[in-house]
Amino acid sequence: MKKIEATFIVNGNPYEIYVDSHALLIEVLRDELGCKLNGVHESCGSGDCGACTVLVDGEPILSCMTLAVSVRGKAITTIEGLAKGTELHPLQEAFVSNGAIQCGYCTPGMILSAKGLLDQNPNPSELEVKKALAGNLCRCTGYKKIIDAVLRVSKGGN
Amino acid sequence: MLYRKLYSFDYEEARDVPEAISLLQTHGTEAAVMAGGIGLIEEMKRRAVTPKVVVSLQPIDQLKFLDVSDGNLRIGALSKLSHGEQSNVVKEGFPALWEAIAQISSAQVRNMGTIVGNITACNPGSDVATALVALDASVKIADGNGGKCIPIKSFGVHSRKNILKPGEIVTEIIVPCLAPGAQTAFLNLARTKEDCAKVVVAVNARVTEGVIEDIKIALGAVAPTIVRATTVETMLLGEKPSEGLIQAASERASQENMVTPISDIRSTSQYRSQMVSVLTRRALTRVFQNHMN
Lengths: 158, 293
Ligand SMILES: Cc1cc2nc3c(=O)[nH]c(=O)nc-3n(C[C@H](O)[C@H](O)[C@H](O)COP(=O)(O)OP(=O)(O)OC[C@H]3O[C@@H](n4cnc5c(N)ncnc54)[C@H](O)[C@@H]3O)c2cc1C
Ligand code: FES
Ligand code: FES
Known about the structure:
The structure holds two protein chains of two kinds.
Chain A: E1 3-10, E2 13-20, H1 25-32, E3 53-56, E4 59-62, E5 75-77, H2 90-97, H3 107-120, H4 126-132, H5 144-155
Parallel strand pairs in A: 1-5
Antiparallel strand pairs in A: 1-2, 3-4, 3-5
Helix pairs in contact in A: 2-5
Chain B: E1 10-13, H1 17-27, E2 31-34, H2 38-45, E3 53-56, E4 66-69, E5 72-76, H3 81-86, H4 88-93, H5 95-102, H6 107-112, H7 115-120, H8 127-134, E6 138-142, E7 148-151, E8 156-158, E9 161-162, E10 169-176, E11 183-190, E12 197-208, E13 211-220, E14 227-228, H9 230-236, H10 243-253, H11 269-288
Parallel strand pairs in B: 1-3, 2-3
Antiparallel strand pairs in B: 4-5, 5-10, 6-7, 6-10, 8-9, 11-12, 12-13, 13-14
Helix pairs in contact in B: 5-8, 9-10, 10-11
The complex binds flavin-adenine dinucleotide and FE2/S2 (inorganic) cluster (2 copies).
One FE2/S2 (inorganic) cluster (FES) binds next to loops of chain A.
């Protein structure tokens, strides 16, 4: 097994570690960086559910389907990178106040997909929100409240 | 935590095409090429493939292009599905290809997967490959020995098996610009928007002075590779588009020798066959709508 020296830039902080060439990004974020970014969730592990979504250079990608070594040096954002201290990000606020969270398992992925969209397109239509979140499954909420929460932030001029 | 992990393998990055080929030649059948990686990692997680070395093309900047030159759209091996979706050149000049890409429902998959990787994976139900077969695309292959260019319809040899030999990679896909007046259509049918298609149909047609001068009908998810409905094409060539003709042609489509759908968790073969006719009828109606009175 080959270990590769790698720098990961996660939520603005550099982490220099040795990583297995076959390690997936989700494993590194949760277990290898020393800061336990457990907001990155695995559900299907096969690209279908979006629970493991993180942003790489601002784009939503699936950390369960990404070799960690392939994103060395790129800017990675996890849900832990959104709040400023105790002040939640507007999307987090909107999810809480809109009842868009039930069990919460899908929420980090949902919020990061929504952030990926709003950073590109601050005023999306409802259809654009639905399209951006289509790769994120939620077993609890029925999606309506999630879509409303994202639209609320976009209209609120995040 | 228990993850769906990968087994141990070595990882190499190629900085240019010759280096990729040399690495692949060195490791032979033990190596796999990685572009976006989403298809490869899915197969490695299932242990459907178990390469000992993964050779990543990701650092090769020369493969990051998507442009039109000399009457062809050229899609470099590192163009993501999302680049195709965001490209006005693709949207306006190659609408069937654009629809095939844009309807892939997950933004994450479009951000990660390449257009070329979708083709090399040789999934018989690929939306993108079906569109590209109707558009008569070619696949450019680098082999360290001058390379070659082959029609996309000969690229897939079986489900998940392409003609590449160890040490060869696809560097680009070349799609001829549509002839003036050509109309295209892309249609698929899936249980949910996210699921793999049960049947895919793409059509590329041109009517000149009232008669069908050119027609290509590609069918996906109904055979081990994407197939062309050649008997239907022959039946249509030189004819005047009409509702009766479209009806007869679409009924014939499900009778094509090459149409051999399987029954699986998504559909029975009988349903797939019936839907070949239904989708072909809709696609032909769309491409001929301005030529029927
Ligand atoms: C959840 C999910 C949903 C999907 N939905 C759809 C859908 O609705 N419609 C659809 O059409 N597709 C769909 N796909 C397929 C997806 O588009 C492809 O998996 C993706 O485009 C593959 O590209 P990649 O760059 O990730 O390829 P990789 O994973 O890097 O490679 C895929 C295969 O091609 C080989 N390869 C890659 N590049 C080259 C090259 N340049 N030369 C030679 N060999 C190469 C690899 O060795 C591997 O065998 C879906 C995939 C997933 C995971
Ligand atoms: S856990 Fe990654 S897509 Fe489901
Ligand atoms: S809130 Fe439970 S899965 Fe979405």
